[in-house]
Design brief:
It is built from four helices and seven strands; from the N terminus they run αββααββαβββ. By secondary structure, the chain is an alpha+beta fold. It folds into two domains: 74 residues, Defensin A-like, CATH 3.30.30.170; 32 residues, no CATH class. A four-stranded antiparallel β-sheet has the order 1-2-4-3, covered by helices on one side. Helix 3 packs across helix 4. The chain is elongated, with a radius of gyration of 19 Å. The termini are far apart.
């Protein structure tokens, strides 16, 4: 069997990496104002659907909207300042593009890994590895 035949055989036996991100259904943030803070009521659900650590998501949201915040004892994110659901939804979309969706195949089947102090995005679907934006 020559190389081209082996390549064709391998390609025919391998499932193609195609698909959509329909499996990634993230609800819109449910927000309400509480004094000078915006509370994301469904923050824990958002993090679970993204498959990410709530503290990492919180830090990135804070960076995106330029403020501080914390996660309260009930798992809700409390972000200092007044933000509507649309603005926080945009920040979550940015988070998904930077830290969830694979830049190579576009699927959400990824996990975050640390490699020598750099956070890497590892795709479970296609095997691609890529550096994520810095968390400065």
């Amino acid at each position: 069997m020559n190389y081209d035949d082996m390549l064709d055989r391998a390609a025919s036996g391998t499932s193609e990496v195609t698909g959509t991100d329909e499996r990634l259904s993230v609800p819109d943030p449910e927000v309400r104002q509480e004094g000078s803070a915006t509370v994301v009521e469904n923050f824990r659900t958002l993090c679970n659907r993204l498959g990410r650590d709530p503290n990492h998501v919180r830090q990135c949201l804070q960076r995106e909207v330029g403020t501080s915040g914390h996660i309260d004892e009930t798992g809700r994110a409390r972000i200092t300042g007044s933000f509507d659901a649309a603005r926080l939804g945009e920040a979550i979309t940015t988070y998904i593009e930077e830290f969830v969706r694979c830049p190579a195949c576009g699927l959400p089947d990824t996990r975050l890994e640390s490699d020598g102090g750099t956070t890497m995005l590892r795709c479970e679907a296609c095997g691609a590895r890529s550096a994520t934006p810095s968390q400065d």
